[in-house]
């Protein structure tokens, strides 16, 4: 069986700078990939290419054998790739229920959970009728994930979802992501700097440096990789 | 359900009101009534792209004038009035599509500047294509519909326009436009085909303006470029904001206030603009969602004061952990 998501030699240049410089990897349904690396190593740009936020300069992304990159964000969502952002964005004064309904409306037959179930998964069941802006910052980050899940994705891209969360909140988030991956078969790519959050969550980890892949492997392999320790993780 | 009944009631009520004003008033007052009704029809269209979608469209007077001129020109070729009217509306909608295609990559003030530029070019054409448009002094419009028929069409268009707007507003199309207004990038990332939605809104918007222009020409009997300038586009933009952008009755309230002030306040050259300018600043400061938004906010506060508690969810207190 071939992988759900195939990323082939993706390059993204901004002017003369190659923010992503030849990244390839594959991801199966239900798998969680941790994407780590120093600031500026191209993690967010890579997510942007996967989600259609940016067109790749070269290379391509295929989902189930069909090209999903370079066709704009809404087509990436139609193909089944949804993302969250580092900064929280939730349509301002909209309630979570309204925002979920809109996202759900764009699902077009892709399977997924009802909005309430998604909200409950992320512990937002009581927050459905509140304006997004009135939620705590941790709840807003969860709400963005709910919004992405409401589109019925097959690939979920999370950009620093655990920022500003304490250990308990991050653990609850990790459990929710695991359930989405396990029960819905969603493939997840998580970018985060919080290793206590990411390492237990990820099945595989991809380390980026200067736009390229520095190392990839299981969390245990990455933890003991000398190049990764030198460039990013640091000595314990 | 109740919202639908209220909206339909409003549509029928304003339709009847428009008919009574158009048939009851004459002379200068009749002219004011005509302009208010015509602007209401045009602004119902603008309420899609600008009101729901949040795109400041300053091409609206050009679409309005396009409908008026194009139908007059087509009528002269011997076409039946309804055919001329439909062709004029279709032609302007095609122009709206082109404008939307060209400027849909720009947002905010850049979209405003781009569409303003389009209106400036359209005014130049209206003024200088003298064979067709009669030049700076305008041209007569042949009578295609009887005056009575035009009045009925004007009144009916208000009602039908409001009903259609309400339908669009509560449909997925309305939600998508509101999402674009709130956060266009996020809207794309939850799957909203933003370009297509904006194109559709712009084309429908242009169609409403063109239809208003057709009826305006029929009622007025003469069209001149001074009625379709950038200044008029800007006043339409202001009128919708004043009345309440995105709100069903915003167009009617905005048209009444702006036309009323510009036409009735003949206090001397420039005075009505000053009054309008001050009013717009006051509304922007005190009721940023327009007159109707201000009224409903006030009603909410009165109700909250009566029940003795502030509306916590709206004011964002007590965040969820």
From TrEMBL, chain A:
<dbReference type="GO" id="GO:0005886">
    <property type="term" value="C:plasma membrane"/>
</dbReference>
<feature type="domain" description="ABC transporter">
    <location>
        <begin position="5"/>
        <end position="235"/>
    </location>
</feature>
<dbReference type="InterPro" id="IPR051120">
    <property type="entry name" value="ABC_AA/LPS_Transport"/>
</dbReference>
<dbReference type="Pfam" id="PF00005">
    <property type="entry name" value="ABC_tran"/>
</dbReference>
<keyword id="KW-0813">Transport</keyword>
<dbReference type="GO" id="GO:0005524">
    <property type="term" value="F:ATP binding"/>
</dbReference>
<dbReference type="InterPro" id="IPR003593">
    <property type="entry name" value="AAA+_ATPase"/>
</dbReference>
<protein>
    <submittedName>
        <fullName>Branched-chain amino acid transport ATP-binding protein LivG</fullName>
    </submittedName>
</protein>
<keyword id="KW-0547">Nucleotide-binding</keyword>
<dbReference type="InterPro" id="IPR032823">
    <property type="entry name" value="BCA_ABC_TP_C"/>
</dbReference>
<dbReference type="GO" id="GO:0016887">
    <property type="term" value="F:ATP hydrolysis activity"/>
</dbReference>
<dbReference type="InterPro" id="IPR003439">
    <property type="entry name" value="ABC_transporter-like_ATP-bd"/>
</dbReference>
<keyword id="KW-0067">ATP-binding</keyword>
<dbReference type="InterPro" id="IPR027417">
    <property type="entry name" value="P-loop_NTPase"/>
</dbReference>
<dbReference type="Pfam" id="PF12399">
    <property type="entry name" value="BCA_ABC_TP_C"/>
</dbReference>
